[in-house]
Amino acid sequence: MSPSIRRPKRARVLIAVAAVVVALVSNSPAVHAAPAAPAAVTDYCQGQCNDILPPGTTGTATLAQILAFKALGIRPAHTDDQLATYTKLVDDYTSLTNAKLGQYFNDSSFGVPSGQVASTIRPGGRSDVTIVRDKATGTPHITGTTRDGTEYGAGYAAGQDRLWMMDVFRHVGRGQLTSFAGGAQSNRTLEQEFYLNGAYTEADLQAQVERVAASGPRGAQAFQDMTSYLAGLNRYIADAKAGAYFPGEYDLTGNANILTGDGIQPFKATDLVAIGTVIGALFGAGGGNQVASALVKVAADAKYGSAHGDAVWQAFREENDPEADLTLHSGQTFPYGASPAHPDGVAMPDAGSVTPQQVVFDPTGSATSNATKAKGVLPADLFTAKHGMSNALVVGGAHTDSGHPVAVFGPQTGYFAPQLLMLEEIQGPGLSARGAAF
Q: Is the torsion defined by CA of 44, 113, 237, 174 positive or negative?
């Protein structure tokens, strides 16, 4: 990982970002109905939070839409409408100001202005939840008058935007991707890589669900939330099959009847555990080590001098190795992870300025760190313990021009289309949030 960090100046923004490749996605048809009365909520962002999730919100395309794209280049709505907006930041970030944030990011305030409502549905015909999608990005805004209905709506919206990907992930988590999506080498590699992080049997998966349900009031609530969410997701599957607007990938892989959708299996609680295993392996097993990498460089330069120290640091990086055996010949190359010749910005921590922070709060006060202080700038457990996740730039109000704290968060989700995460707003009893979720 490179210690070079590119950052916007004075940006008051909450970002959920990821890079993209071409996708084929769309929403299912909307069923219009009168919205339920929304609960009163407090938007603590006060109009100062923004988000973006390239390529776009939707992640489902029917077979007809896939073929239309292949033949005519017609792209379904909200497939890549956030990509160009975010891409502009690459060239314009040096002139970024608070007033210009709306040119590069979405306003992530709660709710949808009346003139920006694209569709409103009551999933499953329920009176205790609505899903409103905005015109700008197609983001689902889920509002419930009961917690059960709110979670039901969240499951329904997830099915609308990510059903095929969710199905792929529940198979990856069980080591069954090749039997589901084909035996391509990439599928086998993905299957083996992630399954080994869990390798749970069905009994193992079920035991985890039961353990949650038996973990006191909070566990019981989590289990009920899961049950409601699955009910909404499975209702969407039933609606999509009845209306013949289920994802076209089921047709193309032979996993469903082209007319009826028979073959698409409902989701159960153990599927969510399998999906969680994949997400945990993907997001929890690596990434976010820029600061640690920078500390290695600082320490190496201090001990060996800049020239030799940089060579030592480079030797530990996951960068293109000129001594690696190659499968490309005849002058072909595939440089991997090379540093830019002229980086736009470089941020390095001062020696001794980084101190460990307790990330996990233990209400009993019994948690202690196994790390021991080492001489110099490196923690003793630098190479044996996890020290970070995705990047975050957080500045206290005492150091900003406005007096307000500033935070820029960028989850490193990799290059996917549809994106692994989805943007959504959820409002209901005990629930009030907007941002990226999986």
A: negative
Q: Alpha-carbon distance 55 to 19, whole Å?
A: 7
> What tokens appear for 12 in the block?
């008051």
pTM exceeds cut of 0.90: no
CA nearest neighbour of 434 among 6, 134, 93? 134
Give yes or no for a cis peptide into 418 (omega within 30° of 0): yes
| Dihedral pair phi/psi, residue 433, rounded to 5° | -160, 155
Question: For strand 50-51 and strand 106-107, is the pairing parallel, antiparallel, or unpaired?
Answer: antiparallel
- Which of these, 193, 174, 196, lies nearest to 185 by C-alpha position? 193
Within the chain, how many helices (H) and strands (E) appear? Answer: 12, 9
The neighbour count for residue 323, using CB atoms within 10 Å, is 4
- The whole-angstrom separation of Cα 184 and Cα 232 is 33
- What pLDDT digit, counting tens, does each position of 236-280 carry? 999 999 999 999 999 999 999 989 999 999 999 999 999 998 888
Tokens of 432: 């009030």
Backbone angles phi, psi at 203, to 5 degrees: -65, -40
Q: Tokens for 60?
A: 């489902």
What is the tens place of the pLDDT at every residue in 300-331?
Answer: 999 999 999 999 998 888 777 777 777 777 87
